[in-house]
Amino acid sequence: MNGETIRWEDDTGEVSLLDQTALPARVRRIRCRDVDRLADAIRRLEIRGAPALGVAGAYGVALAAARSRERDLPRFLAGVTESAELLRSTRPTAVNLSWGIDRVLSKIRAARSIDGCRKAAIAEAKAVAAEDALTCHRIGDHGAALLPDRCTVLTHCNAGALATSEWGTALGVIRSAVATGKELHVLACETRPLLQGARLTAWELARDGIPVTVIVDSAAASLMQAGEVDCVIVGADRITRDAVFNKVGTYMHAVSARHHGIPVYVAAPRSTFDPGSSAADVVVEERAREEVSCIGNRRVVPDDAGVRNPAFDATPLALVSALITEDGILRPPYDLRATGKRGRQS
Ligand code: MRU
Predict the structure, then answer these.
(1) Which of 100, 164, 216, 285 could form a disulfide with 51 if both were Cys (CB 3.0 to 4.6 A apart)?
(2) Centroid of ligand 1 to alpha carbon of 95 (angstroms)
């Protein structure tokens, strides 16, 4: 899926992305000609998943630089910075979004001319995307070694090629394991309310010929109890010094897995680590009521009932058996703070 999730279109100077809200029914691309359209795409989840948001943030700043008509360098920089802050405000939880934005901003601020800024921005954004692909393959290679030769893996949400430049984090581990000849069966939790598991993970894996079965989120615990799950692998939006923030429901799976003695692996690049923060510092995005109260065009919750729709939850690191990064496997006790961005590695 190289460049399929999101890419820079050299011929038009646009950012194009696969519309993840249309999958699996339709495979269609969206072309973002300006930062406002890209910001909308991020808010609507047309592009989503922490590493892909990092790439989107990077391309977004490059887009702002490419589209600016300013001829005065300070005013140009002010305009690009304003666009960067707009992009940053679109989704608060995934730390990768700000990371990608800041990488390109710092290149722009070091350039001496507007033309130099534009060239540096596009080059750096492309580098962010290319590095992400490489990082995912390295995560996959490290993680594959953790899996038995034959196993059933439960995953939640989508941490695949659609959530990254290519390959994926959690699904990267699965893909790499399959590539080494291991026989895997994936249980994809549907991931209410927006069904990233049912729509996206199942689409990706089925396309690759990797056996995948979709379950409702609430079936996970009983399948663990029945001995039908060998391990849980998920991605992450932010890893603080004490918790893994990932799609809401991850915590529920981790609690169930611990009860049944099943390992929980979290696969994530270094750009997702935020060891300077603790769980209490993180803003968990609350999304629109309609995502829960309606299924398609049908209202399924009475108007006078309240709805809560937190998009993420925090799984304490104490419930995580290993963190799989591009640099290797981190195992408990995790001391991400004392070691900068590095815990003990095997
Ligand atoms: O709301 P989403 O779809 O952006 O949430 C995505 C997730 O929770 C993913 O599991 C996470 O970003 C890791 S993606 C490699």
Answers:
(1) 164
(2) 11
